[in-house]
Amino acid sequence: MSRELDKQLKLLGKKEYKILNKKENKLFKEKVEPVMDKIQSKIPEKLMSTLESAFFQGFKLVFEKGHLYIDKTYNKERLKLEYYLNNHAVDKKMSSRHMKRLDKQAGKSQRLNSIISVVEGGILGVLGIGLPDIPIFISVIIKNVHEIAFSYGYNPETEAEKAYILLLICGAMSKDKKQREYNEEIDLLGKKIDQHCYFETELEKQMRVTAKVLSEAMLTAKFIQGFAIVGVVGGLVNYSIIKRIGEYASLKYKKRYLNKKAG
After folding, report:
1. Mean pLDDT for the chain?
2. How far is residue 116's CA from residue 138's CA, in Å, rounded to a whole number?
3. pLDDT at 29
4. Which of 196, 203, 206, 131 is nearest to 171 (CA)?
5. Is 171 exposed, middle or buried (0-12, 13-18, 19+ CB in 10 A)?
6. Which of 160, 158, 213 is nearest to 190 (CA)?
7. Are the C-beta atoms of 124 and 130 separated by less than 8 Å?
8. If you write DSSP's letter for every residue of the chain in order, what string do you get?
9. CB 71 within 8 A of CB 252
């Protein structure tokens, strides 16, 4: 293993550790967490169930037919070409300069898609339920992850990568022990895919799990911030979620890329 590759893996490891082991804010734990728990307990079960179902149907729609829309929103071939050129440079001489070129495209996609989420705004509409808009929100999330995946040389449109993306969303939107569990599951699945040992999974089942995780995170955030300022709050919540998923996806895809280089 080259010195630069070892350095890159260590830097990424520190970044991952920081995400998975966020320092607990004493004030947050004592004052905010009880309020959040109270809010979550007051979210009507029917509302949560309706939202989970809408997110599940949204994932199904986007994965089955969304490519017809998503493919028109970014230049897939350009991303593939940029990856080929950047990866060729890395193979010739791995340096921080060449690695930054790979990271640059992934970062650019994150920023652009986060901005799109704010402009698109108010996804859940009045009282947080604009159900017809949910597939659009999911499309922005998937578009973001697709661009990041292509930036590191992965084809996100295979069945295996769809399962990986669903797990990525769960990992990004979870916290504490649950997030660490998802993180291990993500690493294991990524390793299986990269070693061509992937066995077909129940994609629909994973969609339901991811729909639950994402809908709970979004609905809680909107209840905390209040439904009165629907448009602005919607945009801010969307921005936060897409940024969080994008940053986590970049870390995990880059980790896979570096581990393949390490052999």
Report:
1. 80
2. 12
3. 53
4. 206
5. buried
6. 160
7. yes
8. --HHHHHHHHHHHHHHHHHHTPPPPHHIIIIIHHHHHHHHHHS-HHHHHHHHHHHHHHHHHHHHHTHHHHTTSS-HHHHHHHHHHHHHHHHH---HHHHHHHHHHHHHHHHHHHHHHHHH--TT-GGG--GGGHHHHHHHHHHHHHHHHHHTT--TTSHHHHHHHHHHHHHHH--HHHHHHHHHHHHHHHHHHHTT------HHHHHHHHHHHHHHHHHHHHHHH-STTHHHHHHHHHHHHHHHHHHHHHHHHHHHHHHHHH-
9. no
* Ramachandran category for residue 44: left, alpha or beta (phi over 0 → left; psi -120 to 50 → alpha): beta
Q: Which pLDDT score, from 0 to 100, does residue 163 have?
A: 95
**Tokens linked to 154:** 């992965």
Q: Residue 109 has what pLDDT?
A: 61
Residue 254 CB-density burial (10 A; 0-12 exposed, 13-18 middle, 19+ buried): buried
Shortest CA distance to 170 belongs to which of 224, 121, 241, 219?
A: 241
Residue of 146, 147, 82 lying closest to 108 (CA atoms): 147
pLDDT < 70 positions in the chain: 1, 24-43, 108-132, 220-237
- Please report the pLDDT score of residue 18 as a whole number: 92
13: tokens are: 């490891």
Instruction: Give the model's pLDDT for residue 37.
Output: 59
Cβ–Cβ under 8 Å, residues 114 and 243:
yes
